[in-house]
Amino acid sequence: MTHERGSVTAETAVALPALVVVLAASLWVVAVVGAHLECVDAARAGARAAARGEAPEAVRSAVVRAAPGGARVVVSPGAELTRVDVSVAVQPRWGLMLPAVEVRASAVSATEPGVFR
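The chain above was modelled as a monomer; its predicted structure follows.
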């Protein structure tokens, strides 16, 4: 009976670090997916605003507000299409030595007639 207790302790000692690694990886994936969704939402909102003819400064500030912190925003207005690109490097808070993951999203919207300046 004491032999079985020792094996359970050893199995737990081996399994616990693996469970911590799986949990950390899962949290990292959730953070990356969340950042991607924020980039998609920000790009879509910016493309709609730019297509309506809002001032470029207003479009950019709206996208920056909706995007994750530190995001890079590029607004490309055109006569027919307006494109907004949002990208951000997502780094795990617990693993500063790990490389950052680049998350990107783009949105294109038809520019309303008479809007392009």
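The longest strand covers residues 81-90.
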